[in-house]
Specification:
mainly alpha, plasmid
């Protein structure tokens, strides 16, 4: 199982900067480090994170 640092590095190398940022936020949500529940993200960002999560679930 890769470390969180390795997972983040992999995301960064495989995506554009903007997409990598969203992918990392989605990864943190999956790991239980929620920025959504703490109210730190705006609705547009939350919508984009939900879309990424749905894409990942469809891939499984």
């Amino acid at each position: 199982m890769p470390t969180l640092r390795a997972e983040i590095a992999d995301i960064i190398t495989q995506n554009s900067v903007e997409r990598a940022a969203l992918e990392i936020l989605a990864l943190l949500e999956e790991k239980g480090l929620s920025l959504v529940e703490n109210g730190w993200l705006d609705d547009d960002t939350i919508s984009q994170l939900n879309h990424i999560s749905e894409e990942k679930n469809d891939e499984k």
